[in-house]
Amino acid sequence: MLVGYVSDENDVAIADVAVELTGTDGVPVSCRSSASGRIDADVAPGRYDVVLARDGYGPKRTTAVAGAEPVRFRLLGERTYGFVWPKEATSGSTAELRVSCPRPYRLSLWRYGSAREQVAPLGMGEHEPGATAIPLPDGDVAGSGVDWSPGEFPGQRVVAPERGGLYFVHVDDDRGGFHGLPWIVSPSAPAAPVAVLASDLTWTAYNSFGGRSNYLNPAGLPPAPAVSRRQDLAFYAHPERGEWEDEHYPPLSLRRPDPDQSIPFAEDVDGPTTTRPGAHLAAADWRLLAWLERQGYGYDLYAESRLDRGELPLDAYRVLVLGCHPEYWTYGMFRQVRDWVHAGGRLLHLGGNGLNCEVELLDDDRMVVHNGDTRRLGPGDGPDWSRFTHRREPEAALLGVGYDQRGLLTAAPYEVVEPSHWAFAGTGVTAGSRFGERSLNGRILGGASGHETDKLSPHSPSGTTLLARGLNADGGGAHLVHVPALGRGEVVSTGSIAYVMALLADDVVSTLTRNVLDRFLADR
């Protein structure tokens, strides 16, 4: 009888897992998983206690009903995982560290600002050897989340520092292993004139822990795990189909590890990113925050989810800064920022592929992405491709630019179009000058216009001025624009995910951004 399949945290099949099933008669039946992770056992239908073990993975006990739907058994690889919960907090509040590590480990709290600096040691894992590795739940972990509270033992807790910003809890094991857990700390009350949004909703959309993200298996786990991710995942095997061909998608949980956000300890903020996700996720946000602090700008950092809950008092701020990749927003967030700008707010969008898709927060720890069937949208290289435009209203009507797929995964410098504009004061550029040639983007080389790029659209507000354009081939370059009057407010958008990665490396990019911030801060 087929009892189920066994896979790891990435939903890849695990072969040769020792499986023991014990029914109500108390007689154990043993078998092993096949190359596809399939578990077949000579048992009658009914409920069984199940034990699974395999070298390289944490063993566990679970239960299963044989004769029903095949069970998706999950084993966790012997490596460190964890997260801080909640992943964002206000100063003075308390969060819990939820860590699974197969070896003894030490915890410490670090702030990632102008440099990486240690704030405090947080102690060690407080359990016996072997008890610090916590089993992975069965089923769709990406949707259900991971409840890694340590049972009857008190969890390791941490109080959010008074100084807000981007923090990481470092987990160092006794064999030299390292893993960083991101934590967004916001002020209990506004303390600076600038608010910065960290893209925790976008982070969640890209988080594939559990074998599913908004890109890998977005419509749900398949009936059986992958054997070869390259061959079996539609993202790789059938790229011509696109990622999204369903009307509705199951939730993604915020309450799970997000390994892509860990920044290797050897990576310096003044050096290039060293991981594939770093160029557009937390490591890129660190470069932005480091630049702000070195330039002397005070800022308050907030998670996007806090804005959705109405816990970001926009009226207390002169400027709102969006980072390199705020792709996934709720409609409530969009309305709040749109209304704030129309009432006189200043918005600086330093990214690309911004506000491209609507998400909905079901509760504190689950998010539904409203991709829809993208085959029904406009052409892939046109201004109507955006899922947000299709479902709600054009993001270009707020940002001045909208995403299209030209320029995807390329990079190039910008070319100046309007050198007399105040944004270029003190840069010495002329029409046709190039800037943004130097970048800390270690993934996509070539310049500050790239990775994904936004451009002027039929939906751009009247009066939107093109200041510079990226030199990416085939019209794929980013459009850096100024919207001088959006109601009583004002917007500058850079149109490029890669722009932030040039802030610490390119003098013109730095000066231009400083000119915009100085004007926005003075013009109230």
TrEMBL record:
Coiled coil: none annotated. Residues 159-504 form the N,N-dimethylformamidase beta subunit-like C-terminal domain. Signal peptide: none annotated. It holds the Pfam family DMFA2_C. This is N,N-dimethylformamidase beta subunit-like C-terminal domain-containing protein. It comes from Jiangella alba.
